[in-house]
Amino acid sequence: MPRQVDYAERRLRIAEAVCALIARSGMEAVSLRDVAAEADVSMGAVQRCFRTKEDMLLFALEHISQHVSERADQRIAATSTPRAASTLLSHTLAELALMDEESRDRAHVWLAFVSHAPASERLAAVLRETYGKLHDLVVWLIRYGQDTHEIPPHLDAAQEAQTLLAVADGLTVHVLAGHQSAETASAVLQRHVDRLVR
Question: What is the tens place of the pLDDT at every residue in 110-138?
Answer without folding.
Answer: 999 999 999 999 999 999 999 999 999 99
